């Protein structure tokens, strides 16, 4: 397991290269370009954070907290602020201790998100991860509206070695969830992962469909722990936060999955997502392979992001 974690950290280091270049270069230039901690220093640092896609709100909070720590610790030189800044960022994206309790119990995991963010791939990788952890897993192909969604999920089910419940394209998604819950209960399944539609036909309301699925789960398997993971494409940066708010209006989103971190310079949005939405990032994807998705470790993430700064 330790070796697996080290392997993922290497992938994380490599995957965050574009983000690291984007954020670190800006912050380094501020730290090395000034000799005095004053308002200009804080303004330049805040600008560098915003350009690193942390967003205005998160960047402002970082600067406020940094000011407090500089005063409290009597820090005199800008270069001495670096470690303090890193600790503040780690704290801002910290994952609650109970964030993964659902993995230890019988659970239904609803996976939501717009089309194109990597939702189906994420489900396949999650299933494989849970299987590696010794869990009995079932997938439910409840995205019945997108062409080829069922076929793609079936392919991932085969790759990850899990059972899949599916009906024909265009069928009632909630009926698929009902069948999947019934199967999961009868088979003693540990984790049921349900794919959901990223969009529906004009006469269907996506958010109402999600609510209907939740009602079925609550009614048919009330003792199961329920987790709703929202998949966001990290390459879309701050726009992903607007997507998240839409889904939060209809679903009790409990965690974020950030995909495509290896293809973006906007990885700083992981910090703003946590701050703006109040929902922890729980998983992070940094590649196309089946094992390229892991739990989000805030210490590990920030260390990888700022590794060049730490020497």
Q: What does it look like?
A:
This protein has 311 residues and is an alpha/beta fold. The chain has two domains: 2-93, Four Helix Bundle (Hemerythrin (Met), subunit A), CATH 1.20.120; 101-295, 3-Layer(aba) Sandwich (Rossmann fold), CATH 3.40.50.300. It contains 13 helices and eight strands. The chain has helices at residues 2-15, 17-33, 39-51, 56-73, 82-92, 119-132, 149-160, 173-187, 206-220, 239-248, 269-277, 298-305, 307-310; strands spanning 107-112, 137-141, 163-165, 191-195, 225-233, 255-259, 281-285, 293-295. β2 (137-141), α7 and β3 (163-165) form a beta-alpha-beta unit.
Short structural description:
With 311 residues, the protein is an alpha/beta fold.
Produce the secondary structure layout.
Layout lengths: L1 H14 L1 H17 L5 H13 L4 H18 L8 H11 L14 E6 L6 H14 L4 E5 L7 H12 L2 E3 L7 H15 L3 E5 L10 H15 L4 E9 L5 H10 L6 E5 L9 H9 L3 E5 L7 E3 L2 H8 L1 H4 L1
Parallel strand pairs: 1-4, 1-5, 2-3, 2-4, 5-6, 6-7
Antiparallel strand pairs: 7-8
Helix pairs in contact: 2-3, 3-4, 4-5, 5-12, 6-7, 8-9, 10-11
Number of domains: 2
- Specify the biggest β-sheet: 8 strands, mixed
Distance between the termini: 26 Å
Instruction: Output the strand order for the largest sheet.
Output: 3-2-4-1-5-6-7-8
């Amino acid at each position: 397991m330790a070796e697996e974690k080290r392997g993922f950290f290497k992938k994380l280091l490599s995957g965050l290269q574009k983000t690291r270049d984007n954020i670190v270069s800006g912050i380094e230039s501020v730290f090395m370009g000034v000799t005095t901690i004053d308002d200009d220093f804080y303004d330049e640092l805040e600008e560098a954070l915003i350009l690193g896609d942390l967003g205005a709100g998160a960047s402002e909070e970082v600067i406020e907290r940094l000011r407090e720590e500089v005063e409290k610790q009597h820090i005199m030189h800008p270069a001495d602020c670096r470690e303090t800044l890193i600790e503040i960022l780690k704290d801002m994206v910290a994952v609650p201790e109970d964030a993964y309790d659902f993995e230890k119990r019988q659970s239904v995991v609803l996976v939501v998100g717009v089309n194109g963010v990597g939702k189906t791939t994420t489900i396949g990788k999650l299933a494989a991860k849970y299987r590696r952890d010794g869990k009995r897993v079932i997938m439910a192909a409840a995205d019945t509206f997108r062409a080829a969604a069922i076929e793609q999920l079936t392919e991932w089910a085969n790759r990850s070695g899990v059972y899949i419940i599916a009906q024909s394209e265009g069928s009632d998604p909630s009926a698929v969830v009902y069948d999947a819950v019934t199967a999961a209960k009868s088979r003693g399944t540990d984790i049921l992962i349900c794919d959901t539609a990223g969009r529906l036909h004009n006469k269907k309301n996506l958010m109402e469909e999600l609510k209907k699925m939740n009602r079925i789960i609550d009614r048919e398997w009330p003792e199961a722990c329920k987790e709703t993971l929202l998949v966001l494409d990290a390459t879309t940066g701050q726009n992903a936060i607007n997507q998240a708010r839409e889904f939060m209006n209809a679903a009790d989103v409990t965690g974020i999955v950030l995909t495509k971190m290896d293809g973006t310079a906007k990885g700083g949005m992981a910090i703003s997502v946590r701050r703006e939405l109040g929902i922890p990032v729980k998983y992070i994807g940094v590649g196309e392979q089946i094992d390229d998705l892991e739990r989000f470790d805030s210490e590990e993430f920030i260390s990888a992001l700022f590794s060049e700064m730490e020497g």
